[in-house]
Amino acid sequence: MTVRYGNMSLTNLFGKNFLTQARVAEAHWAPYALWALRLAIGAMFLQHVMRMVFGYEPADSSQLFALPPGISPFAVAWETGIGLALIYGLWPRVAAVAGAATLTIATTAAHGVTASPYGWQAPVLWIAALLTFALAGDGAFVLVPSRSGSRTGSRQ
What would the pLDDT profile of 33-73 be if each residue is shown by its tens digit? Predict the structure, then answer.
């Protein structure tokens, strides 16, 4: 395939092996890019748990578990599990789908009916990143890889 800009092609500009070298570099770095995305999303989940536990206001029966009002112990455990699974690479694609489902439900519940001072854009971007990761592959440095027909990444 020849990509042209005016009457000049990329092969003439950069040499015949330019596109081949670009594909090799992309294949080499892609698992590490997915690993970086996985770490960032996992850290965001853990930060969200910390914010729920240490800085949240609504009242609820969660005080029975020594949590702030409005916090479900199940939600804390679930989101902590998703964050740790993403960071450590324990079925990361499954964790990403579970995280996207959790955030979709939470975003709809929190922002679907009433306006919120926090906005809906960040959770939707977070959901898109999780689904992109789930479709792209496990990435590098996975402890327990997800079962799938095609894997991106290495088991290191």
Answer: 899 999 999 999 998 888 877 775 444 545 545 555 666 78
| Contacting residues for 137 by C-beta, under 8 A, at least 6 apart | 30, 31, 34, 93, 148, 150, 151, 152, 153
**74-103 per-position pLDDT tens digit:** 888 999 999 999 999 999 999 999 999 998
Q: Is 60 among the domain residues?
A: yes
Q: How many domains does the chain have?
A: 1
Q: At what angle do helices 121-136 and 92-111 cross, to 10 degrees?
A: 160
Decide: residue 44, CB within 10 A, 0-12 exposed, 13-18 middle, 19+ buried.
middle
The angle at the Cα of 141, spanning 85 to 144, to the nearest 5 degrees, equals 50
| 24 located within any domain | no
Q: What angle do CA 143, 100, 126 make, to 5 degrees?
A: 95
Is 52 inside any structural domain? yes
User: CA–CA separation, 123 vs 106, rounded Å?
Assistant: 9
Residue 9's beta-bridge partner residues?
A: 4
Global confidence as pTM: 0.69
Report H helices in the chain: 10-14, 18-54, 73-88, 92-111, 121-136
